[in-house]
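Researcher: Go.
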Amino acid sequence: MNTEQEWQAVRDWIAQAARIAVLTGAGMSAESGVPTFRDATSGHWAQFNPQDMASERGFRAAPARVWDWYAHRRQGVAAVQPNAGHLALAAFAQRHPGRLTVITQNVDGLHQRAGSAGVLCLHGDLMADRWLDTPRACCRLEAALPGSPPRCAACGNLVRPDVVWFGENLPASVIEAAQQAAQDCELMLVVGTAGAVYPAAGLAHQARQAGARVAVINPAASELDSVAHAVLRGTAVQLLPELLGEPCPRGAAAPSGETA
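Model: Structure:
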């Protein structure tokens, strides 16, 4: 259980920091009901090797099957909504322009739908597309021939989901921006991630080495607990609205007309 001292320390760090970086992981999306990768490969899809469903090799071997699996995943994400943690981050950023950078390992777009701008999506965007091969002048996504998957009518180039597959590098511009945010921040909040996937987890190490405070918010132990100056046990939905809200005595009633 979190002590009042631990909670208040993190609250104070948020109030004092001129630049805050927030690294979010799958636990944050799970609170909205987003199917995990494991969930998405259950049922009908359990008969296929997950790496074949999320790799360039697998896509080239069976493009229709992989495209249909991603259509299935997109339907699952479209059916859920941003949770109170997503909304708290977006609201804080809107109240304090320029202070907060969201870096996420999630591909579901819930931070953006909640209203966060400039989100650094380390592993891509499930709802976006790009070309499989280097696009030619004839390749225009808005003009792709419908299909499973869509393709360029002129050269046959296939459309693929704009996510990072097994064996692929993170988008260079995104990881560079994330590393810069980690380097420049005075506080990093690590929310809903086990801290086992690199280079994403390395951002917390980088922030600490650069002199920032690091606070982990997670219901269970993570591999980044040892890096943190403070560890708060709880979920994003439970803790972020209170931590990022306007100053208010802890446990006080919300103003009339509002919900806690």
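Model: The two ends are 20 Å apart (CA to CA).
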